[in-house]
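Lab notes, practical 5.
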Amino acid sequence: MEKKDAERRLADLRMDDLPIMQFQPRPNSLSSDWFKEYKKACKEFIQGLSDSVQELAMLNLSQDEFIGLLMGTSIPNNLSIRFRIPILWGGKIDSENMFMCKTFPHSYNMDRFIIEQSEKPIIWLPNPAKKIYIPAHTASGGDGGNATEDRLSQIAAQLAAGRGME
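Output from the prediction step:
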């Protein structure tokens, strides 16, 4: 599949602004403690989200979900942590190899996009520029939406208060 074909398919899936990278899958075996490493990497990833407050605000989370996520106590429903390069294809279990997006429809559609290429020797993988992928057509916020300055200020104040309790 050529890059233009991959980009066309992403446009069909309403993710035409999702950067992609070319990748040659190589089967990789997992160590017996992979899940322990995965949980540790997820925790590190979540702890590093404090620089992504504006993107998090666009996910339409309640304030409790937002604080719970940034404090590392919970991942809200309908959010997924994904690997940029799947670990079964040689990707590292590392927070640098992770990004977050809505499970439905984005993670679901990314899976469809990857599976559709599964028999190819070279595939295209989602590779968002930031830690959180939000399609541009859904990131505009709007009047009274999650991107308003008041909401961000309120969330930032709660985050600061929550961190003071650590």
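Observations recorded by the TA: The helical segments are 3-12, 34-47, 53-57, 63-70, 103-115, 149-164. The CA atoms of residues 13 and 112 lie 9 Å apart.
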